[in-house]
Design brief:
alpha+beta; six-stranded antiparallel beta sheet; globular; single chain; 1 helix
Amino acid sequence: MDKPDSCIGAGTVRPCLPSSGQATGPASAGSLSAKASTVPLYYYRVRCTDEVHEEDEGYEFPNLTSAVADAKLALRDMILEAIDLNISLDIIALDVLDWNDKVVATIPIEDALHGYPIRH
């Protein structure tokens, strides 16, 4: 059986889908390195209770504030999709990493919905 792409029971919610950043692919793949770009690359990592899922693609954002805002939206979307699918969610946080693989921000799951109305 294949390992699910996310920390939910059915494995149907894909973690770390940026809504506004432009995907560039991994810097190590030579598609676009953060050092060659004037726009910083950020990566997402979903931390679950028993495992970690990291994105291979970097996403361009003009600054850390934009990357964090997008990460909150991505985490919120994962939560809402899990609710819609009536499946359990095992995510505890989403980390934002810079091109040096350094965690520059962490969004705990309980903060993902703060300030966002939920409409169903």
